[in-house]
Amino acid sequence: MNPFTYGNPIKDPARFYGRSEDLRQIVNRLRSSAHESTSIVGERRIGKTSLLKYLDTPEVAERLGLPKSEFCMVYIDFQGLTDITPVRFWQRVLRKIERSICLPELVPQIQTLRDLNSIDLFDLEDMFETIASRGLTTVLMLDEFEYVTQNPNFGSDFFGGLRALAIHQNLPLITATRRELVDLCHSEELKGSPFFNIFANVVLRPFNRSEVLEMLDGYLQGSAIQFSEREKELVLGLGGGYPFFTQMAGNYLVEARLKNLDGDELLKDVCANFDNQADSHYSYMWSHSSENEKVTLLTVIALNQKKFSKETSPTLENIARNHMRAHLDLPELVKRGLVIENKSGGTYSLLSPSLERWIVREITVPPGEEETQANVQDWLQTGGREELKPVSGFLPKFKKKYWSLVGGVAKDLSMELLGAVTWQVITKGLM
User: Fold this and answer.
1) Does 170 map to a domain?
2) How many Å from the N-terminal Cα to the C-terminal Cα in the chain?
């Protein structure tokens, strides 16, 4: 049986690894005298739902200092609920509380409130005050909360009421979103709401090396298959510290071992299956990156192609020399996990050679399908893009929709990008 799975959040707490510092911050805020709220922020597939589900496990909550007798942990997933309204929001919340609360004598009051066609803020205050008076803190863990903040059905009155309940009625919130809450509002008016001031951000980042190795060893414990050091490096390289991608790489490595593959055959099999499965996830990451972030990613790829030297290594200084906005883009790309920072060397690389391969395939055209130089010149002239003439000779190798993007990379790096088209990264840095 393959011990590595991917696609669904981790539900078995025994399979949950890492995030000790993130958990510490969240729990400390919940246990403070003010019972403070936390906003979990992280790229898709970074493990936000797994973290919330871990907190939602009674024995885990007990071990972390959140016993059921003191904390009623309520998990709610809003993914796909595009038509939800404030009434339906509270009905869903109340139904979850009704199932989770350790005080059965309060269930009739909760049911009565839930069955109302219109739920008044004063009624909610009365109910949560009653719960708090019994020494119980209700914690709302709101997954995919952007489906609420970006929904025009929810105005400033709703968020003002939710803020009041969180602060005054012992109702701390733990939200999980891809970006910071204030950036996920449906209106400028809502961005100014004091609701967003009650949260401290906890940004989920990729695992470090020791956390990945701990997870690999934990999953393989008791298994008939054990990874060699070279195979662990393969998984580390492909996964880039993402728990999801790490599990995917581990899964395909086990499958290759079960097929009795080894050496280059094993490497090619794992990389080919991983690349194919990761394709849609890379597409999402790329599509949710700004044009400037994409130029920064291309610049990082190109600099990593150059022979290492003080002037060409992918440091912040060298990246910014070739793309002036890089000093603004790199912190965000690192936070999202698309770029990995080597702090000891001060250099940057993409999260995985697999992502580099995907970007190269995405921006280039297959052989024989290149645009003509005449079409390039026409594009330059009609668009008033005279500044891109120095790289016009390289543009036919790239898809037309990316010509402006590629043109944003410095001229002396364009050849490096071209080199990446045929660069054999299958084995680079992996084995």
Assistant:
1) yes
2) 25
